[in-house]
Specification:
There is one protein chain. The chain has 20 helices and 64 strands. β63 and β64 form a beta hairpin. It is globular, with a radius of gyration of 42 Å.
């Protein structure tokens, strides 16, 4: 127990040195230091080997709070500024400081040790690691027919029907039958004894095993019961602690000193001036765990134990006499200062004979990821027993009140924190992640409109004066509105911003009645659950009932918006460059403060933080530490910044003087951007203080961007382009193979990034380490200081794309300034690059990238900027300024302190820039600016400065839109969405998005996002808007889209914001977005292969042939023609029997991505029934010289190895059109060389980028929808199917569509139920398993037909037609392929199903050739669907159209709607 020693003589009074020197002689670490030293210095002295210790003093204040919003440019001129910004590494300099900034930073010791900057390499997915993977407990159940590894007993007997008893019974049966066998065949008694001995041995062993297992099970259950009901000792860990304590005690002492000394300084009782540590030792006896009780009946991921712990150094019953002789008790010497100001006296107090014991409950929640213990809950089940002895050192008397200081302080602190039922929670997962526990996850914007029908009166009568107070879970008040006098229907229209740490809590809006001279009265409360903000971040016009004691007290109207923090994507460390965000400012410590500011040379320092222009009202103050010139505060503060570039932070270090004026010891001011830039450098967080002789401050800041309209790529941040860089990405050689472990090769493509934003990408070359792209991209650039990063990537569909290396290209190497005011920049020439690809890790090089780069200047145009009234946060803060109403006073700074704490206005640390480098090169020449010394001295508001007249060229819209090439600048303002998504903007071919916004946090999206894209030919360009609901900008889940001509789009959006409606591919409601645009002409001279005239749809009429070579015995041939484009077969004609002058008169359409580069050829073959077709001659058809829209007939001369013989007459008609490119759901893409088989420039369906009727991709195992494949896949996937117009190719390589037409589906559901005639023609099949006699069974509805079986072949042909009645009631066609067996049962080869209305239209006349991939086997079946809605097969007078008439009618309708610049209307 505590005791107080009475007065005594000097001889009887222990001295400090005498008390502790004896312990030091015993080999115990005794820590002795100056009581006035800083905690870090004390920790360094105790640790000996540590140069620097970090305080672990936790912030006990509320995590949530109302946040100050820094809304505009500041007049405060920083004391810390940037020097030589044009250099590669800008430097910070300080003004009017006693110590140079570099010296202040460099004299700090470096951190000891280091943490790895990157995580360990991930284990490949194909590894099987751990018991869960090896046991397959998480694997999906096997499909029926796939249970190959099960044993016989598993398949036929349930588990309860076999086991040990089953084996014993089998043994008995075996013994009976074996003995009967021995007796029956007259074996002797010896054999019988041998049999019985063997059976007895097995049975005895089995019964022993049963008894042993039963005994183990019983003991295990008894142990569980004993664990829960009895305590057990922990001698093994106590023995470990006895040995480990002597090693660990110095480290633990250093930690305690650096933290407890801070707590004592900040928690000094009022009757004492200060309470500090001066000497410290923990002794030689380790703490003990006396007993442990475990609770086994908890969930598998919960471990709960009761620990009896004690720290009793005076108890020697459990140690040896030798250990007792050298034992040292813990001793702590406190330096207690009594008095105030100069009238103080210091009295050292020795705290010894410390003992502690208690019963603690520990509950741990486990998890699978590191550190495997997620949460630890600690609580004391009983009030712990704390005992100690206080002995004043020297001839001083101890104040009786000081005896209970330590005990009461301990219980007062621990009681509400961890005395049962309170629990102290340690979130280990969050602590080890490196993120502060009190870090904000977002900002809550609460706009309080009004309250109506308030019920209640003032105490004593009268009308209330209401105001609203905001709190989280009814904890401390976070913010309050002004009060409105004498009203039952107040209107506030105030906006409050609150930082929140979690969304699993509730926002409480309390309505109070303001009273002048007494406590305010609660009139009612409304509750809003923050969890709903995760689904929709914006809730407007909320009307909540005000309740008190369960009774309605009125109605409150308000809006709530949530702006989450944008976190970097997995595997990336870059934080998005936004102007609006949360700043976490940490005031760590100060050193060598100017002691001449105090007469005693002793300071009581604390720091205040000021934001912006207001230097009289601080937004944050650190704790006060007394009597130290080296305080360690470790005080974090978070605030919302609406404009990072203009924000200035001012910190004043103030000396607290109780009743006197508190003077400023020193101050500093720095721009936020400069402070954030300095955080990237090690040990560069020390800054000298101004206005004092000495002193420096350690300050750090963390930027957390907010997802808020205008914060990311807003209109205020946008700078018009100075030109574009034309990149010809030719090829790469010997790139890194990241798929070698799987036996494959990389799928490389090149992406071009500027400031970590992707501006352009090439196509993907599959499975190639030496890819050839030969592709041109145009990249807009805005400054000569920009750098283009050409990064070679490996495409991955299910995971993130992987880097194969990168090359940097400086814009300054391609362009320079010019004297032409129309084109302020000009090209320096063509750069041909052959650079090595630098890998991300290790800085090694692998492979080379070949490219050609040229700069093309843009026209310096006026009016490219968008009108802006600030970002969303600035507007909300300015609109909430309400002058009406009274302010509830919560205390303010006195006028005397304000006068004493005033600091000079102006820059104390000036930038020392060279005047030659002061001219900005970040913008175009129309916006030159030169910073002068006078501008630094004059702190005038930017609003007062007259903006210079913008230079450039004025151009009317009509004249502007005659410029064919240029940069379209999009300002995506807002949108009303059917579901939360991000907007992607694509131009021309739609292969990659030109840019994409962030994913909206609400269906009422507010983006204010400015992006841009380059259009090569405005008259033929296309704009494509689509909504993607995935978070990853490299993946797709398209929910809605809009397509239109680029020129018409600009005509509507250049005059002001326009609304565009985006439609989905199903029954989802439509979405709308608001977009404004500008156009910057760039005079680009296109190559022939870049023009729209170079791509389009080619109609080929195969007329006839003449003088075809005869190869049959009769001198004739059976000729047919095959057309090939870029190595892929696109069309096969009919076979003409026994003729040398065939008349085909067939036609087909094919999409040509590039006429210049097209390899288009025809080859004539002779058909043979039993052997392979023979070539009769081939020829190449040149397409580069074809005139668009003009039909031309050509005679093609055939050549072969037998010489030149034969001609073919064809007719060609070319329709120029943009050919949209698409991406598949795998790691491959449809390349530009692939032929496309329908008219239409853009996709009809929103989906994984696959284009209906343009460039479809066939999935061998695809499910035909637009969804991402799930993992694990379903046991049986639907059969793949694709279609193309009738009369085109017999091969799927022609580019068939694989996805349904939403228009056809919708119209099929909405059409009349009157059936039409569906003619199904079974054409052929290929790739069957071996040679079989195949026949087909078809079913539509309840009607079924069978074809005849063919002869043995792997490519059967039937050409049999069947008629069905079809309508909305028959959505599918089912097909089965069988092998005919002359003897025995026919064998099933495969089956599949066709979505009828996915490929043909349910109105009018429609036809399509459908390719169906067979399930449960290999093979591809081709059928032709022909539908006539006007013919009812059930009517008595119905007649079916002949095939020729049907095709003629269909083709006439199909070609009638086709014209240049228009696509066939799929709704017709």
């Amino acid at each position: 127990m505590a005791s107080n020693s009475g007065p005594a003589t000097n001889n009887g009074r222990p001295s400090t040195d005498a008390v502790l020197n004896q312990d030091a002689r015993n080999g115990v670490a005794v820590h002795s230091f100056d009581p006035e030293a800083s905690p870090s210095q004390k920790g360094a002295d105790a640790a000996k080997n540590a140069d620097k210790l970090k305080s672990v003093n936790a912030n006990n204040g509320p995590a949530e709070r109302e946040v100050h919003v820094e809304t505009g440019p500041s007049n405060v001129v920083p004391t810390i500024t940037v020097q030589d910004t044009d250099a590669k590494e800008p430097k910070l300099v300080a003004k009017d400081a006693s110590q140079p900034l570099v010296e202040a930073q460099n004299d700090m010791p470096s951190a000891i040790g280091g943490i790895p900057s990157a995580p360990a390499p991930a284990i490949p997915d194909w590894y099987r690691v751990g018991w869960r993977q090896m046991s397959g407990i998480d694997d999906p159940p096997l499909a029926e027919g796939e249970e190959k590894d099960k044993g016989v007993l598993d398949m036929f007997l349930a588990e309860q029907f076999y086991g040990t008893w089953y084996h014993n019974a089998a043994l008995i049966v075996f013994a009976v039958f074996a003995s009967h066998f021995l007796t029956r065949f007259h074996f002797g008694w010896g054999w019988l004894f041998v049999l019985l001995a063997g059976c007895n041995t097995y049975y005895s062993t089995s019964m022993q095993r049963v008894r042993r297992q039963a005994r183990d099970d019983i003991q295990r259950e008894l142990v569980k019961t004993r664990l829960a009901s009895e305590h057990e000792s922990a001698d093994w860990i106590n023995n470990f602690l006895d040995r480990f304590w002597l090693i660990y005690e110095p480290v633990l002492s250093a930690t305690i000193i650096s933290s407890v000394d801070q707590v004592l300084s900040a928690s000094t009782p009022p009757f004492l001036d200060s309470l500090r540590l001066s000497q410290f030792t923990l002794g030689t006896k380790a703490p003990r765990i006396d007993k442990v009780r475990t609770f086994p009946k908890t969930p598998d991921d919960i471990v709960m134990m009761d620990w009896g712990i004690s720290f009793t150094p005076n108890d020697i019953s459990d140690i040896t006499p030798k250990q007792a002789a050298g034992k040292v008790n813990p001793k702590v010497v406190l330096s207690v200062r009594v008095g105030k100001g100069l009238a103080t006296a210091t009295m050292p107090i020795l705290v010894e004979d410390i003992s502690f014991s208690g019963l603690m409950r520990i509950r741990m929640k486990l998890m699978s990821n590191f550190p495997h213990v997620q949460i630890v809950d600690i609580s004391f089940l009983e009030k712990p027993v704390i005992d100690y002895v206080l002995k004043p050192v020297g001839e001083r008397h101890l104040d009786p009140r000081a005896v209970f200081v330590i005990r009461e302080m301990t219980h007062a602190t621990l009681g509400p924190m961890m005395y049962d039922p309170n629990v102290f929670t340690l979130n280990l997962a969050q602590m080890l992640s490196g993120k502060p526990l009190d870090a904000a996850i977002g900002v809550l914007q609460v706009t309080i409109h009004s309250a109506r029908g308030i019920k209640g009166t003032k105490i004593g009568g009268g009308t209330p004066d209401p105001y609203i107070s905001l709190a989280i879970n009814n904890r401390s008040e976070l913010a309050r509105t002004k009060y409105k006098t004498n009203t039952y229907n107040p209107t506030w229209m105030e906006t409050k911003f609150i930082l929140i740490n979690a969304l699993n809590e509730s926002l409480i809006l309390n309505l109070y009645d303001f009273n002048d001279h007494r406590k305010d009265t609660l009139m009612g409360s409304a509750t809003f659950e923050l969890g709903v903000l995760a689904d929709d971040a914006t809730h407007e016009n909320i009307q909540s009932q005000l309740l008190k004691d369960g009774k309605e007290r009125g109605e409150l109207r308000y809006d709530i918006s949530y702006y989450p923090v944008i976190t970097p994507k997995e595997g990336e460390e870059e934080v998005l460059d936004t102007k609006v965000g949360i700043v976490r400012l940490t005031i760590h410590q100060a050193k060598d403060l100017d002691h001449t500011k105090s007469l005693s040379g002793d300071l009581n320092p604390f720091a205040k933080v000021f934001l912006g222009d207001d230097l009289s009202h601080h937004t944050h103050a650190t704790p006060l530490f007394k009597h130290t010139n080296n305080p360690v505060w470790e005080s974090p503060y978070e605030f919302v910044c609406s404009n990072k570039d203009s924000s200035v932070i001012t910190v004043k270090v103030i000396d607290d003087r109780d009743f006197l004026k508190d003077p400023v010891v020193g101050y500093m001011s720095i721009k936020l951007v400069d402070l954030l830039d300095s955080m990237g450098e090690a040990e560069r967080d020390w800054f000298p203080l101004s206005g004092c002789k000495s002193g420096k401050l350690r300050l750090s800041a963390e930027w957390k961007p907010l997802q808020m309209a205008g914060g990311l790529h807003g209109s205020e941040q946008y700078t018009p382009p100075i030109g574009v860089v034309r990149l010809l990405l030719d090829k790469a050689t010997d790139v890194k193979n990241v798929e070698a472990a799987l036996g494959g090769k990389s799928d490389p493509y090149v992406r071009v990034q500027v400031n970590n934003v992707t501006k352009g990408r090439t196509e993907v070359i599959n499975n190639n380490l030496n890819p050839i792209w030969d592709q041109i991209v145009y990249i807009p650039v805005h400054s000569l200081k920009e750098t283009l990063m050409l990064e070679c990537m490996d495409y991955q569909h299910l995971t993130r794309d992987r880097s194969l290396g990168s090359v940097e290209l400086l814009v300054s190497d391609l362009a320079k300034e010019s004297a032409d005011h129309r084109y302020p920049y000009e090209s320096t020439g063509v750069k041909n690059g052959n650079d090595s690809l630098r890998l991300d890790k290790g800085g090694a090089f692998k492979g080379n990238l070949h490219y050609t780069a040229t700069f093309i200047p843009a026209l310096a145009l006026r009016g490219v900027k968008f009108d802006s009234s600030g970002n969303q946060l600035q507007r909300a803060a300015e609109e909430s300024q309400d002058e009406d109403g009274g302010i509830v006073d919560t205390g303010s700074i006195s006028s005397s302190d304000e006068e004493a704490q005033a600091v000079p206005v102006g820059i104390t640390v000036k930038p020392k820039r060279d005047r030659a480098k002061s001219q900005s090169v970040d913008t175009t020449k129309s916006r030159k600016s030169v910073r002068t010394e006078d501008s630094d001295k004059t702190a005038s508001s930017p609003r007062d400065v007259e903006e210079p007249v913008e230079a450039g060229v004025d151009m009317e819209m009509d004249e502007l839109l005659t410029q064919q090439s240029g940069v379209i600048v999009f300002n995506v303002i807002s949108g009303q969405l059917a579901r939360k998504a991000r907007l992607e903007v694509l131009l021309d071919d739609g292969y990659w998005p030109s840019f994409t916004t962030v994913k909206s946090s609400s269906t009422s999206a507010k983006w204010e996002y400015v992006g841009e894209g380059f259009v090569k030919e405005l008259d033929f360009g296309k704009v494509w808007l689509r909504l993607n609901e995935t978070d990853d900008d490299e993946k797709e889940a398209i929910v809605a889209e809009w397509k239109g001509d680029a020129k018409a789009f600009l005509q509507s959006t250049m005059t002001g914001p326009q609304k565009f409606v985006l439609h989905g591919n199903d029954d989802r409601p439509s979405s709308s977005v608001m977009i404004e645009a500008r156009y910057v002409p760039v005079p680009v001279k296109l190559e022939a292969r870049e023009s729209v005239n170079n791509q389009g749809v080619l109609r080929v009429d195969l007329l006839n042939g003449q003088e075809i070579r005869g190869v049959d015995r009769g001198g004739k041939s059976d000729p047919f023609a095959i057309f090939t484009l870029n190595g892929q077969k696109v069309y096969k004609s009919q076979t003409k029997k026994k003729t040398l002058t065939p008349e085909w008169n067939e036609n087909f359409d094919v999409s040509v991505p590039s006429r210049v580069a097209a390899d288009f050829s025809i080859e004539i073959f002779d058909w043979n029934q039993l052997e392979q077709a023979k070539s009769l001659g081939s020829a190449k058809i040149e397409l580069a010289d074809i005139e668009p829209f003009q039909a031309s007939e050509r005679v093609i001369n055939l050549t072969s190895k037998h010489g030149d013989k034969g001609q073919v007459n064809i007719r060609l008609l070319f329709h120029p059109e943009i050919i949209a490119k698409s991406r598949k759901n795998t790691s491959t893409f449809s390349t530009a060389g692939r032929a496309m088989t329908q008219l239409g420039g853009f996709p009809v369906n929103a989906g994984k980028g696959v284009l209906h009727g343009v460039t479809g991709v066939f999935h061998k195992k695809g499910n035909g929808n637009n969804q991402e494949p799930e993992s694990p896949p379903p046991p049986e996937l639907p059969s793949g199917q694709a279609s193309q117009p009738v009369g085109q190719s017999e091969n799927l390589e022609a580019g068939a569509t694989t996805f349904p037409s939403s228009e056809s589906k919708a119209s099929a559901e909405g059409r009349s139920t009157e059936p039409g005639t569906l003619r199904v023609t079974v054409l052929d099949a290929k790739d069957l398993v071996g040679e079989v006699k195949a026949y087909i069974t078809l079913r539509v509805g309840d009607k079924e037909f069978k074809t005849k079986h063919t002869s043995k072949t792997a490519t059967p042909e039937w050409n049999e037609s069947f008629v069905f009645a079809a309508g909305s009631f028959t959505p599918k066609l089912y097909a089965w392929v069988h092998e005919h067996k002359t003897l025995g049962k026919d064998k099933d080869i495969g089956d599949g199903e066709i979505d009828i209305w996915r490929h043909i239209k349910p109105e009018g006349v429609s036809a399509a050739d459908v390719f169906l991939e067979l399930r449960q086997g290999n093979g591809l079946l081709r059928v032709r669907l022909e539908f006539d809605a006007s013919s009812n097969p059930f009517s008595s007078g119905s007649s079916y159209l002949p095939v020729n008439e049907f095709l003629e009618r269909y083709q006439s309708l199909h070609h009638r709607d086709s014209a240049f610049g228009e696509r066939p209307d799929h709704d017709d």
